[in-house]
Amino acid sequence: MAALREIDHQQVDDILAAVETDGACIALNVLPGELCDGLLHDFQPHLDALPWGEDELGYRDDFYGASTKRLHGLFSKSTRMEAVLTNRLFLTLANRMFVDTGISRDIRLSNTELMVLNQDQDVQVFHTDAGSWHRVQHQEQNEILISANCALTDFTATNGATRVVPGSHRWEKDRTPREDEVCLAVMPRGSALIYAGNVIHSGGANREAEARVGLYLGYIVSWLRPIENQLVTNEPGDIFSLSDQARRLLDVSPGGFTVIA
Ligand SMILES: O=C(O)CCC(=O)C(=O)O
Ligand SMILES: [Fe+2]
Predict the structure, then answer these.
(1) To the nearest 10°, the Cα dihedral for 148, 204, 226, 230?
(2) 160, 121 in Cβ contact below 8 A?
(3) What is the predicted pLDDT for the residue at 11?
(4) Which residues pair with 215 in a beta bridge?
(5) CA–CA gap between residue 119 and residue 113 (Å, rounded)
(6) Structural domains of the chain in order of their starting residue, each with its CATH number
(7) 129 lines ligand 1 (CB under 6 A)
(8) CA–CA separation, 238 vs 144, rounded Å?
(9) How many angstroms does the Cα of residue 223 sit away from the middle of ligand 1?
(10) What is the DSSP secondary-structure string of 129-162?
């Protein structure tokens, strides 16, 4: 089985090169242990209030699965989210990929999602996250989305570590991965799976008693519409009181119109 490269979070050039060639890699030591603990603590009451297999609006979704919980509106649920949103590695990667290359004038957050896989959650269908904008996803081989799936608990081969297909960001449309082309993003908590929007991946199967918890953030070129409207999923006052930098990433600042698009 192929393997994902594991690179310390400070080696930004190496991470960028791995994302370019493989479409994904594991960044180590991204979130300190206390931050993981604090985030889990803040999200727990919201998870307790949610039945398995449903989101907060009561929808059930085959794509997500029956033994999972998904939380959105994370800025109102934890004040620690601003530090994650403005993480130096994530912003540097997005700026290098989208702004320095001239693909876009700025970057935005598309969405954040807490992804909890419980015992007996089966594998998710293979997909690309940039498929959310399928009309532009393969234009000139440019990426439009870079994602981080942060491990708040260890990701193991048996508890649902994300399945990733290295190199698939360059594949022709509709090619299906063989099992021997699939890697598991096994990583200690505090790490992040960094992956390009066009790379094929899916949630893994959890065969363990303990839940696997991933915190997803997706950064896009600023001319795309974010998936999550933060003013609807959060208390608007919580968003307006964030820093200028955070509000700009969330597209909640006085518009610069095409000047900053
Ligand atoms: O749970 C995971 O590790 C990945 C989930 C995923 O890819 C998605 O929901 O888009
Ligand atoms: Fe995905």
Answers:
(1) -90
(2) yes
(3) 98
(4) 114, 150
(5) 19
(6) 6-259 (2.60.120.620)
(7) yes
(8) 28
(9) 24
(10) GGGGGTTTTTGGG---EEEEEEESS-B-TTBTPP
pLDDT tens column, 156-209: 999 999 999 999 999 998 899 999 999 999 999 999 999 999 999 999 999 999
Length of the chain counted residue by residue:
261
Strand partners of residue 193: 26, 149
Confidence (pTM): 0.96
Retrieve residue 100's tokens.
Answer: 């320095």
Pick the ligand that lies closest to the CA of residue 185.
Answer: 1
Q: Which residue has the tokens 């021997």?
A: 180
CB neighbours (10 Å) of residue 55? 17
- Proportion of the chain above pLDDT 90, given as a percent: 86
Probe target for ligand 1 pocket from 201, 217, 228, with the most ligand atoms within 8 Å of CB: 201
Is the model's pLDDT at 261 over the cut of 60? no
Residue type, position 113, single letter? E
For residues 45 and 211, give the distance between their C-alpha atoms in angstroms, rounded to a whole number: 15
Burial of 38 (0-12, 13-18, 19+ CB in 10 A): middle
Residue with tokens 């919980």: 69
Q: Cα–Cα distance between 239 and 78 in angstroms, integer?
A: 12
List, in order, residues 6 or more apart from 133 with CB less than 8 Å away. Answer: 144, 145, 220, 224
Decide: 203 in ligand 1 pocket, CB within 6 A. Answer: yes
Query: CA of 94: how far to CAs of 16, 32, 87, 169, 218, in Å?
Result: 10, 21, 11, 16, 10
